[in-house]
Amino acid sequence: MEPRRSLGWPILLGVVLIASIIALTVGWVLVSIAAALGSTNAAFYWAILGVGVALLVVVLAGVIVYLALTIKAIALSQRQSNFIDSVTHELKSPLASLQLSLQTITRRPLPPDQQADFHRFMLQDVERLDRLIDHLLDAAKTLHRRPAAGAVTEVLPVLRQVCAGVVQRYGVPTESIRFEDGTDAESLRVRGRSADVEIVFRNLIDNAVKYALPEPCVRVSTSAQRGRVTVTVADNGPGIPPGERQRVFRRFVRLGSELERSTQGTGLGLFLVRSLVRQMRGSVAVHAGPDGTGTLVAVDLPAAP
Questions:
Q1: Residues paired with residue 223 on neighbouring β-strands, in sequence order
Q2: pLDDT given for residue 234 in this prediction
Q3: Of the candidates 124, 135, 235, 266, which lies 20 to 30 Å from 107 by C-alpha distance?
Q4: Contacts of 135 (CB under 8 A, 6+ apart)
Q5: CA Rg, the chain, in Å?
């Protein structure tokens, strides 16, 4: 997770750097005065030299830390800008579609079949807005919620429910998502809230179908061994470059340009996945698909007794 950071640490670092620079300046002045007066006290020179070297090291370390903080701040600003672009697009598109449908219905009478089509399109736009709001609320709750102690969830019912919802949402055939389960359902129980488990696999399976359209082929497999439950989601989409497989879990990150993108999203889905999996003391990793194409995401969670 990436919690909000306090300003106390950068301010303290700045104060230490300023004090170190002042001390170095004062030490340099004292050495210059001693040299001008012809003092030959070797202990004094060695003491000033030792203190000066220590302060110089502190200043260099502080500059390096400040440089790292600046780079992180710039990267976060870019991701936030990317997020604003994506959310703006996600809000603008369904609102524009709703406005056009309402204007068409009110300006002239339409046959019943066309009215039914417009009502269906408007309902889809409202559902899209509702999903966007739920996504943002999930992200806000995840950042400020503590892990549930003692909660246990059965994985298979959640996976079936999520898959049914994704199939209905994108209007793809049921066989587009295939289960490869060779484990007793009773052993697939994990520690964590049912809602959290649903958010994790809903985002993963939704991404798998969304980026593999128009002919998605998603394989969901489960296994349990040595007190761990592993769920993998593989798709036939374009895949994620190796250098980007860790970055996609950061907040607001989406690959490519928001102005040229055709898929919906806010850059929060995989961030939610990683945050919730870590809260459940698990791990998540991205790999290439089994045949070298597409994406395979593996989620490893502790099994519940």
A1: 230
A2: 92
A3: 124
A4: 266, 268, 269, 272
A5: 28
